[in-house]
Structures are given as C-alpha cells and as structure tokens.
Design brief:
Length: 131
Amino acid sequence: MNNSDRPRVLEALCMLSFLGSGGGFLLYLAAAVFYRKAQEIVLKFSSLHTTDGLSPLYFLLFSLFFLISLLGVIRMWNLKRSGFYMYTAAQVMILSWPLAWMGLEAFSATALIFTVLFLGAYTLQFSRLRA
C-alpha cells in the first residue's frame, strides 16, 4: 500500500488508537494474570472501596475487547471498512462491560467522551475506507 493513499487524519487517529487499544490490551491482560496486585492498584487509585465485584475473568474479557479494538484499528490502517465495525463494536463493549458487571457506579464520563470523539472522527474518515 502506498503511504500517500492513507489520509493523514486517519493515520493520526490510528496511531493514537493503536497506543490506547494496545496499551489497554496489555494492561488488562496483566491485571488478569497478576490479579492480586491488580486488586491493590484498583483500591489505591480508583473510587472503589472493594474489589469483591472484580475477578480475573472481568479483566480477561476486557483485554479481549481491547484486542478486538486493536485489530479493528489495524484493519482501518489498511483502509478496510471492516476495521471500523470491529473497532466500534469493541468500543461499545468497553463502555458497557463495566456497567453490566458492576452497575452504574462503574460509569466513566471520561471513557464516554473519548469514545464518542474517536468514533466521530473515524466516522468522518469512513468514506476513505474500502470494502
């Protein structure tokens, strides 16, 4: 693929998403593997007072959603529309999974804002992607 075929805005979005989704995948996978240490970190740096509602499965599924998001970003980098759909589905799961697992106290306005911004930006680039 010729580098000039990919719009600069799409390149920038994909690079940022690669960092976010790749980092999220590694972080949540590590939290699943090193669950006891992850519990300590969650209690120290979040507003949760207990980790009773969490489990290694919670973090493992989160890492799966981030992996799907990452694969979608890679496909969009290669100008494939299927990547947009994969990324969108994964982002919806990333937003809704904590709510389904722990309830409304797990809502993150910051995550919602960034998700809406990135999905909006990718939507504006959708016509540049190929089937």
